[in-house]
Write a structure and sequence with these properties.
- It is elongated and about 140 Å long.
- The protein is of the alpha+beta class.
- It has 3 domains: about 25-115, no CATH class; about 180-255, Signal transduction histidine kinase, dimerisation/phosphotransfer (DHp) domain (Helix Hairpins); about 255-414, Histidine kinase-like ATPase, C-terminal domain (Heat Shock Protein 90, 2-Layer Sandwich).
- The strands form 3 sheets. It has a 5-stranded mixed beta sheet. It has a 4-stranded antiparallel beta sheet with strand order 1-4-3-2. A two-stranded antiparallel sheet has the order 5-7.
- About 55% of the residues lie in helices and about 15% in strands.
Length: about 425
């Protein structure tokens, strides 16, 4: 209604102002009007053709009933006034009653010589500028509420839970803000309950595990044949608890990213040397000299370690690690020559506690949290984790990190 009313008002007012300016300020119209008044006093129906030729102006005599008049025009003519008429091309003609006869004098039409089109455009410009101002004032509360909702969403994404947004009942998005408040409250409650449950279960398991380990240390291995297997089961439970606690702490650590220029060449060489010492499989590293990237070195080191460890676990003989920059994007890939992963499992491999059959089993170790941790770290860096078939015959895991802009950095820091 605001827009329709504004457009109608602009259309009417600009046209009225323009017509008023045309009548009041157009020199051509004033000249035609003065000529019509002069002829109304002198013309008595004589040789109109000669007069028209003499003054170089089209003149004709008409009966009053030959033209359909509006009431105000008929009244103006009866008072010896001049009625100006404009056609579609702004050509002007004048009508006036002759005093010395009952005829209607028509002078014109004259070709428009108006050069004030700029005034008309200026009138339209200010009219639409006024409409734009009205719309801006009308939309300002909506724009303010949307910005408030956007900032609250960004804070929630980065893990900062703030007080519920104040809802103005007159706001156009009041139902959206109310729903957002309920949603964030419910999600925050579920996350907090999940953290409490994970921490409680993990710590409750740690206590009996510690007692069992102490009891095993006091036992004589010769008297209990199953003692090594029991110790292995306890160690597996202890590893699971450590992984669960580590995964649960990631949410709070996300707010403490330290983004600096990291020497990935040195970082990956250190990783490969450390992990290769504990494996009989060969690791080939291909990385540019002095390759640096802006990221959190601690978390990227952990992500690359999980990738390489995962590849060494399932490779047959060789693992390839590559790092390079292309189109302002960092690519870190790890290939192995294992049995690979099925296409249908690509979307599942980065989910927590996911262990794929055959290639991911208990005998080979792992609880399905290593790749989930990598996915979370890469997500903090606004990047992507990819998996595909490797040219070596196994699986190829990739980390793709974009060059973070100042806006991305501010979102992470906040």
């Amino acid at each position: 209604m605001v827009l329709i009313g504004g457009l109608l008002f602009i259309n009417w007012s600009s046209e009225a102002i323009w017509q008023r300016l045309q009548v009041d300020k157009d020199p051509q119209s004033q000249s035609v009007e003065r000529l019509a008044l002069t002829l109304s006093h002198t013309l008595n129906g004589g040789n109109i053709t000669q007069l028209s030729t003499a003054i170089n102006a089209p003149i004709s005599l008409l009966n009053q009933d030959d033209v359909v008049w509006l009431d105000w025009q008929r009244q103006l003519l009866s008072q010896q006034g001049v009625v100006l008429s404009y056609d579609a091309n702004d050509n002007v003609a004048a009508f006036v009653l002759a005093k010395m006869s009952n005829h209607l004098i028509k002078i014109g039409p004259f070709e428009s010589k108006t050069t004030d089109d700029g005034i008309k455009h200026l009138i339209l410009f200010f009219s639409y500028a006024l409409l734009a101002l009205v719309i801006a004032l009308w939309l300002r509360p909506l724009w303010r509420d949307l910005n408030l909702l956007q900032r609250a969403s960004e804070r929630f994404v980065t893990g900062k839970v703030s007080a519920p947004l104040a809802v103005n009942k007159d706001s156009a998005i009041a139902p959206v803000i109310s729903t957002f408040n309920r949603m964030t409250a419910q999600i925050s409650r579920l996350i907090e309950e999940q953290k409490q449950l994970t921490n409680a279960v993990s710590h409750e398991i740690r206590t009996p595990l510690a007692r069992l380990k102490f009891a095993f240390a006091m036992l004589d291995n010769k008297n209990i044949e199953q003692l090594p297997d029991m110790r292995q089961d306890v160690e597996e439970l202890e590893s699971l608890v450590d992984e669960m606690l580590s995964y649960g702490r990631l949410e709070s650590q996300a707010q403490n990213l330290s983004l600096v220029n990291v020497d990935l060449d040195q970082l990956l060489h250190h990783q490969v040397e450390k992990l290769a010492r504990h494996s009989d499989k060969k690791v080939k590293l291909n990385v540019e000299d002095k390759l640096t990237w802006r990221c959190d070195g601690h978390f990227i080191e952990r992500a690359s370690q999980n990738y390489i460890t995962n590849a060494l676990r399932y490779a047959k003989s060789v693992v390839h690690v590559n790092a390079y920059i292309k189109n302002k994007t960092l690519y870190l890939t790890v290939d192995d020559d294992g049995i690979g992963i099925k296409d249908c499992d690509f979307s599942q491999v980065f989910k927590a506690f996911t262990r794929l059959d055959k290639s991911r089993n208990k005998q080979q170790g792992g609880f399905g949290l290593g790749l989930a941790i990598v996915s979370r770290i890469v997500q903090w860096h606004q990047g992507q984790c990819l998996v595909e078939h490797s040219a070596l015959g196994g699986a190829k895991f990739s980390i793709v990190l974009p060059l973070l802009s100042e806006q991305d950095l501010s979102i992470i820091d906040n």
